[in-house]
Predict the structure.
Amino acid sequence: MNKRSEFSSRFGFVMAAAGSAIGLGNIWGFPTQTAENGGGAFVFVYLILTFCLAYPVLMAELVIGRHGRTHIMGSLRAVAGGPVSRKLATFVAAYALVCISLILCFYSIVAGWMVTYFLQPIMELAGQQAAAQWLVDFATPRNVIAALAFLALTVAVISRGVQDGIEAWSSKLMPFMIVLIVALILYVAMQDGAGDGLKAYLMPDFSQVLKPELIINALGQAFFSLSLGAGTMMIYGSYVSRKENIVTLGAYVTAMDVGIAVLAGLLIIPAMYVAQHNGIAIFTEAGNLISGDQLVFTVLPALFDSLGAASIPLSITFFLLMSIAALTSSISMLEVPVAFISEHEKLSFSRTQAAIAVALLVAVAIIIVLLNFEALFGAVISFTTEISQPLIGLMFCLYAGWSWDRSKKLAEIREGFEGVEQSIFWKIWPEYVRYVCPLLVLIVYVQSLR
Ligand code: TRP
């Protein structure tokens, strides 16, 4: 049997997993949610939920994955206690595979837009006005072509494998992305009006902290942002060497994900107030900050336009940043079904064949969604992120907390972390994924269904 791939270094893993976690969810979702949910109050609740709920779930996925060292169905079955929980593991893994493929479907659509907005100013510079306009006009042919092109890029990276594909690309793109975001923050901070944005972002309106809406949104955001509840982190965990301290690695990834989300808020919210200062409307009629696609594809381009000579480099930089963030995330989505197919005992697909096969299915889903945009786009997003991810994440906790024998769990974490038994992590985490995480997820879940 071939030796299974691993990430070559700690840095490689952290870049890959942080690359997965850091995506449109951080740079767009997080600032948007913050704007919608009372500014700093949302940031506050989000931080608490990330460390208290999302990090333990992340650890559950990483540890189960590293223990199983195979596709997610195999890993989950390996920690199942008896025949019933093994059967259920098959079902949960299958659900996760469908869920992650659908996430890849809507994510490719959005990422495709980022790429078109990145190309538009370049076309303008090249004097191709008509093409530039085509790129930013919302129309089905453009949407389909952009999403499929982005998906093809994802396939190209994934078919190169764990080290030469995922790790190599993430290790190069992530540092570059951080440079881009910091440069943009500094530029925006120097514009008139940015200070007001900073205030709106950082001053918590504590009266909002206990609103169920806010808590539900913050939990959804925390799960989505750390790529939880869909098998991504389980499969990445399966490529981590037993020499590494997985507890620390998980903490690095969480910290980077949160750090970039907070940085993105420092970029987007002040940028909106600069836009307002330049005469662009940033509030809806109801008095809330404009969010969602309007924010990224209307307010920000209008802001860039209002900045004169800086406009073209700014929009190229911003949408390049978005495209990179999206790519290092989309590869982590595609990897889940690709690993399943190419490592499945009964199938004999190479990695590339598996990547193409999955991509064809996802491409069909993309076309169906785009042809029925109004009816399906939002529905796919809420089915995957609001309903499925928390449910699957809950199941992962139950496997990590209940099915998996405590001493075997300890033995797995001890690899690469000698002193684990004396650590605070081991004093808290096992009980935590057993009781606290499932209960919290359940409470929020039931709330959100009402
Ligand atoms: N976390 C990424 C973001 O913030 C998206 C992502 C990557 C994801 N892999 C995932 C979301 C798996 C859910 C499940 O944009």
The mean pLDDT is 94. Residues 20-21, 23-26, 100, 103, 224-225, 227, 230, 232, 329, 332-333 surround tryptophan (CB under 6 Å).
